[in-house]
Amino acid sequence: MLLFIECDEDGRTQFAPTLSRVVKQFKGSVSKQLGYSVWQKSFYDTIIDSDTIYWEAWRYIDENPLKYALKKRGEL
Question: What is the pTM of this model?
Answer without folding.
Answer: 0.63
